UniProtKB/TrEMBL annotation:
UniProt cross-references to PANTHER family, sorted A to Z: N-ACETYLATED-ALPHA-LINKED ACIDIC DIPEPTIDASE, TRANSFERRIN RECEPTOR PROTEIN 1
InterPro entries: PA_dom_sf, Peptidase_M28, Peptidase_M28B, TFR-like_dimer_dom_sf
Taxonomic superkingdom: Eukaryota
Protein name: Transferrin receptor 1b
Domain Peptidase M28: 271-472
Length: 628
């Protein structure tokens, strides 16, 4: 990774740093980083899942899938004879485990419950429902095919596994497979994933799992009530293809039995942190994080991000110790564990320090999945970070580096709303921290995510054998954004960007229920006026004055957290963000509420959440001139 560090150092060498007026130098001990060997999460457990495809009258097709700890074994056919059952034994990695995790403060260890068994036995008609989106299920229902009690066969993609299970409309079980129209790899390639519609330990939702002897298990509202299993495309033969493909069949006539046997056992995970303390505002910190472990090889998912994380930590440390760089704010480098289970390591950390994180952690940058191709740049983030991403890409494009040839010369970055399975989503929607993920991709998406084919050779092929160069470019982007966030006088969070997002969210609600939305429209106006006050304060203030600068930054950094609804429980509704979360409290859900009493309540709560955000930006209560 010398190329990463060299490219990043070359880029930042052109930047000018203005040290704050302090007489002391950054001590070497403040720049320590604890290195931990990237390793897979060791789970000494075995999951067993079996399903039978049973025609009603003639013959029987029997398939058996068994998951073990060996992540390198492939699916092998062990029995196949004419007129006999076709039996498969699968020894892929342990992607069907339902593990219950607990966190200990002192050593940052997460423990699982004592060994116990979870058993499901479901029988129903097999129905193919494309990707399992609401519009896909509506098509099936219009064909007069009964979904209640059925076993849905769904294609991977478009939405997360958890969302597929959540919207399954009365189905008794869900099977998910990679369709050959979308994924061209071998038909016996197994998928990894989880179906928890949430994040963190699913048995301590909303609170940290420090010591599980003190906290009885509390089931997350996001855990599915029905079994779900990934299968190979070979096992789904006869149902492959989209709605308009000739091989496509809706099904609904053959019986299928899904039997799931899980064993839950104790294990532990570790989060690893390194800190470079700031010189002016050390209590405000930026976190740069990456998932360290993976179910399979996890080359693009975990390895690349971990390498960049370590090299950025080393580069920043050397800049402080050797080049005299003095960041105004602190930088925390975080290596998360158990990311594959729903960002368990990161979420438990957020839950542990919920009362203080929102006042100190002002931005999170995720390095997961940084490189998945070449030629395109995509990002998902809080609207507060849109401008920073845009200016960073312009800076990187204009830098005379040979690495720029691997990035297409588009005028702007492609920034999309953050999805629920994004590693940065818990920071944004659960904790109210401005967060971002970004990726270098090809026109064709990287198909090996969530499989054991996510290895160095496949990523190198996807990047046309330029993985190292593109990784260096990604490190440059992350490094430049981090520099601006920790060193500029005013933190690079653009509150203007939320005005457009709020307008877009409020207008559909207003069009449906005009008589009830006067309060909401007024709250939107209050928010926009507060944004103008922030802009005026920045323009008219002496930003070299540390006290003035800190007051402005306090107003800016509080915006995201104030958009978390205080009226819902993080135990029942973890993603409390008014605009980017999930649940009946969001502005997006107001237009779908049919019960008028519930609509009145949710509208009032959403209005006061938005109004409260505007008060935060105004600052002191004696500066608030809004009529209540």
């Amino acid at each position: 990774m010398e190329r990463v560090r060299g490219a990043f150092n070359n880029l930042v060498s052109d930047c000018k740093f203005f040290s704050p007026p302090f007489s002391y130098f950054f001590p070497a001990t403040n720049a320590q980083f604890i290195l931990c060997r990237p390793a897979s999460l060791q789970l000494k457990s075995e999951s067993y899942s079996r399903f039978n495809l049973q025609p009603q009258v003639e013959g029987e097709t029997h398939m058996e899938a068994k998951m073990s700890d060996d992540v390198t074994d492939d699916v092998t056919q062990v029995e196949s004879q004419a007129g006999a059952a076709t039996r498969f034994e699968q020894t892929s990695s342990d992607h069907n485990k339902r593990n219950i995790c607990y966190l200990s403060l002192g050593t940052l260890l997460v423990f699982l419950l004592d060994c116990c068994f979870v058993f499901f036995y479901i029988k129903g008609k097999l129905v193919y429902a494309n990707y399992g989106r609401l519009e896909d299920l509506d098509v099936v229902l219009k064909k007069d095919i009964e979904l209640n009690g059925s076993v849905l066969l769904l294609r991977k993609g478009k939405i997360s596994y958890a969302e597929k299970v959540q919207v399954s409309k009365g189905a008794s079980a869900v099977l998910i497979y990679p369709d050959i129209q979308d994924y061209k790899y071998e038909g016996d390639t197994a998928l990894y994933g989880h179906v928890h519609l949430g994040c963190g330990d699913p048995y301590t939702p909303g609170f940290p799992s420090f010591n599980h002897t003190l906290f009885p298990p509390t089931k997350s509202s996001g855990l599915p009530e029905i079994p779900a299993q990934t299968i190979t495309s070979n096992a789904s033969s006869g149902f492959i293809g989209g709605f308009h493909m000739p091989p496509y069949r809706l099904g609904g006539s053959k019986n299928i039995t899904v039997e799931v046997n899980n064993i839950l056992v104790n294990t532990k995970i570790r989060n690893v942190f390194g800190v470079i303390k700031g010189f002016t505002d050390p209590d405000q910190y930026l976190v740069i994080g990456a998932q360290r472990d993976a179910w399979g090889r996890g080359y693009a998912r975990a390895n690349v991000g971990t390498c960049v994380l370590i090299e950025l930590a080393r580069a920043f440390s050397e800049m402080v110790k050797k080049d005299g760089f003095r960041p105004r704010r602190s930088i925390v480098f975080a290596s998360w564990s158990a990311g594959e289970y729903g960002n368990v390591g990161a979420t438990e950390w957020l839950e542990a320090y919920m009362s203080t994180i929102d006042k100190r952690l002002f931005t999170y940058i995720s390095l997961d999945g940084l490189v998945m191709g070449r030629g395109s740049f995509t990002a998902s983030s809080s609207p507060l970070l849109y401008s920073l991403i845009e200016t960073t890409m312009k800076t990187v494009r204009t830098h005379p580096s040979v690495l720029i040839q691997f990035l297409s010369q588009t005028s702007s970055a492609n920034v999309y709303p953050m999805s629920m399975d994004d590693p940065a989503y818990p920071f944004l929607a659960f904790s109210g921290i401005p967060s971002m993920s970004f990726h270098f991709t090809s026109k064709n998406s990287y198909p090996y995510y969530d499989t054991n084919l996510d290895n160095m050779d496949h990523l190198d092929y996807q990047t046309n054998h330029h993985s190292s160069e593109i990784t260096a470019l990604a490190a440059q982007c992350a490094g430049v954004m981090a520099l601006r966030l920790v060193h500029d006088h005013v933190i690079n969070l653009d509150v203007n960007q939320y005005g457009r997002i709020i307008n877009k969210a409020v207008i559909p609600v207003y069009m449906r229920i005009k008589k009830l939305t006067n309060w909401l429209v007024e709250a939107r106006g209050s928010f926009l006026r507060a944004v103008e006050k922030v802009n005026t304060s920045i323009s008219n203030s002496d930003l070299n004055n540390e006290k003035t600068c800190r007051m402005i930054n306090n107003r800016i950094t509080a915006v995201e957290h104030s958009l978390l609804s205080p009226y819902v429980s993080p135990t029942q509704t973890p993603f409390r963000h008014l605009l980017l979360g999930r649940g009946p409290h969001t502005l997006a859900s107001l237009g779908r509420i049919r019960d008028m009493e519930q609509l009145h309540v949710q509208l009032a709560l959403a209005t006061w959440t938005l109004q409260g955000c505007s008060y935060v930006m105004v600052g002191d209560i004696w500066d608030i001139h809004e009529q209540i």
